[in-house]
Amino acid sequence: ATARLSTVPGLQLIGTATHKVAVLSFTLAGVHPHDIGTILDSEGIAIRTGHHCAMPIIEQFGLAATARASFGCYNNAKDIERLVAGLHKVRETFGPAPMVNGR
């Protein structure tokens, strides 16, 4: 999932530890996480958005909120592809990703 989400223009993963649980927090340049959640919800894709009970660290990163996808033993590669396709739809809705860190 990490590798596939990294292909979405403007997507920044928050927390890139080598050993971590099946949770990916991210932002999408130029799009508020609540808008990401709303569009994905309309596609039948459930994620969480907000502070995730971690407001101090979210603020330390200088973020308003993040989007978070959680994966369980029942998820498969098709679910990851649906998420990526949904994120591309979000990107299409809000236009090209703004430049971040020169890319």
What this model shows, in words?
Helices cover 37% and strands 17% of the residues. It contains 4 helices and 4 strands. It has helices at residues 2-5, 33-42, 55-60, 77-94; strands spanning 11-14, 23-28, 48-50, 66-70. Helix 2 (33-42) packs across helix 4 (77-94). The longest helix is centred in the last third of the chain and has 18 residues, at 77-94.
Largest sheet: 4 strands, antiparallel
- Apparent shape: globular
Would you tell me the structural class of the helices and strands?
alpha+beta
Beta-strand residue percentage: 15-25%
Indicate the percent of residues in helices.
Answer: 25-40%
What are the salient characteristics of this protein?
103 residues, 4 strands, 4 helices, single chain, alpha+beta
Quick structural overview:
With 103 residues, this protein is of the alpha+beta class. 37% of the residues lie in helices and 17% in strands.
Secondary structure: elements and pairs:
Layout: H1 2-5, E1 11-14, E2 23-28, H2 33-42, E3 48-50, H3 55-60, E4 66-70, H4 77-94
Antiparallel strand pairs: 1-2, 2-4, 3-4
